[in-house]
Amino acid sequence: MESVQSIKQRFELIGNDIKLNRALEKAIQVAPTDISVLVTGESGVGKEAIPKIIHSLSHRKHAKYIAVNCGAIPEGTIDSELFGHEKGAFTGATQTRSGYFEVADGGTIFLDEVGELPLTTQVRLLRVLENGEFLKVGSSQVQKTDVRIVAATNINMFEAIKKEKFREDLYYRLSTVEINIPPLRERQNDIHLLFRKFASDFGQKYKMPTIRLEDQAIQLLLKYRWPGNIRQLRNIAEQISVLEENRTISAATLHSYLPNAGNTNLPAVVEPKKSDGDFSNEREILYKVLFDMKGDLNDLKKLTLELLKNNDTEKVQEENETLIRKIYGNKEEETHHHETNVAEVLHLPEPPVVEATAPVVQQQEDRYHFAEEIEEEETLSLQEKEIELIKKSLERNKGKRKAAASELGISERTLYRKIKQYDL
User: 245-251 long-range contacts, Cβ below 8 Å, gap at least 24?
Assistant: First the structure.
């Protein structure tokens, strides 16, 4: 079994961090087996080195090694890329094609950004992991393959599982052994070593003297968080090597190349995410509007009854107008309904006129009769309320569908369909 130091030299890995050494030890130990491995870590930490080490130390080292970036392949073609397709399986499939799992038979496949796989592809991949079988797109013939799968991801897999973006059973199949690569900010003693290595490589590549950091610049280098990890450090070293004429780099010069170097690592205020209970389509939004309208109308009816008991018709009119303005909202509608007879809007009968000589009992009977009519209005179906709401919106907007749709909170296409459906 090869040592960690020899592996570092062979694959040009720089660093003595204990977490990095532990990750390399796990890779060396698991390599001779056929166990599936999941490599985790932030973007730019160098996860792609682990599957190469595993493949080179396994009994499959003389077979093919294929690296696939799952996040770079369109969802519509990824099944064809991985499993192949038959001629005529879809538009543009002019000939039969072998997928990566067929080509890499006997070898190793590295699935980078495996968390980006569509759910349908995850089901196919699970079948390969369980029994080594797969189907080409457009084929009914089961094919066998013998591949070792090493996957990598920079996302939180448990969060993805919770959001139902990744299958839990597939995660446990892939992560028989999990190897985590630490971020660069947790490898402080390795940061300057890596920078010097990159500076030396770029000095040779561009035939220029190697850049050197002053002491204060080294301290700044170590304090920076490096959100892009090793990839970002390499890019910074290349930029400075090419652009700076003075080959001794001060802290001020280095600071100019580091984005957000002056920011502290204080907690950030994050906007709350919308809950899963938010309305997901226009129909539900419209129903919510209708139910809110119904509640406001019920309040209006109760208030009308209460004021009628006190025989205060002027107060009835005033309160009704206030509630109508609340229901319809904007100033144009407010003016329109201010001039509209309340009884017409609600389809209610005019309040009974009571003669001064009429018995008190007769007044009560009339009010009870009026209350019964109001209760009958409660039997209006949701569909009737929806039709009424659409008619009024179209009238207020003078038949302009776009404006009416915007007012109702639905798309113009949905409004057009409703108009056809209800023959408005």
Answer: 247/208, 247/209, 247/210, 247/211, 247/212, 248/211, 248/212, 248/213, 248/214, 249/211, 249/212, 249/213, 249/214, 249/217, 250/214, 250/216, 250/217, 251/214, 251/216, 251/217, 251/219, 251/220
In one-letter notation, the amino acid at residue 53 is I
pLDDT in tens, 3-27: 999 999 999 999 999 999 999 999 9
- Dist. CA 11–CA 51, nearest whole Å: 12
Distance CA(64)–CA(58), nearest Å, equals 12
Burial class (CB in 10 A: 0-12, 13-18, 19+), 21: middle
List all residues 6 or more positions away from 245 whose beta carbon is below 8 Å from its beta carbon. none
Cα–Cα distance, 220 to 214 (Å, whole number): 10
pTM over 0.70: no
Contact yes or no for 289/414 (Cβ under 8 A): no
Report d(CA 424, CA 421) in Å as an integer: 8
Residue type, 319: E
Output DSSP code: residue 341. Answer: -
* 187 token code pair: 């490898």
| Distances 29 to 34, 112, 149 between C-alpha atoms, Å | 11, 21, 16
Tens of pLDDT, residues 59-115 = 999 999 999 999 999 988 999 999 999 998 888 888 999 999 999 999 999 999 999
Residue 53 in tokens: 């080490």
